[in-house]
Amino acid sequence: MKAVFEIKDIKQDWQPPFKKSEEIKQIEVSENEEFEADGDSGFVFRLISLGSDYAHVQFNRLYTIKGHEHPNDRTVKLQKQGDSYSFSALWNANGVTKKLKLIDTVD
Q: Residue 94's pLDDT band (boundaries 50, 70, 90)?
């Protein structure tokens, strides 16, 4: 079984002219597979496990969840067709946010 994720990649310059770009893509991922390459830091996400209506995902230590939730094990559980999580890069020269949403599971 594979998970189908939607990833919205938002980049914003922190210096003039303060350009902002957005890219949305869908990818299929198998269990224990890393995905969403991020330059020198390797991959941003790894699919740990997958159920019929959820995905358990680990995220890179160079990213943090936007908001108040900061799990020590750096994992989140996404529900199918549920809310998305936004992850911000901690040490990039510009602003980088990756919004992850579980769209579907396929065989």
A: confident
Output the CA–CA distances (angstroms, integers) from residue 103 to 12, 29, 51, 55, in the order listed: 26, 12, 13, 10
Integer Cα distance of 90 and 5 in angstroms: 23
What pTM does this model have? 0.90
Closest listed residue to residue 9, CA positions, set 41, 37, 29: 37
CB 67 within 8 A of CB 46: no
How is 83-99 classified by DSSP, letter by letter? --EEEEESS-SSEEEEE
d(CA 83, CA 12): 23
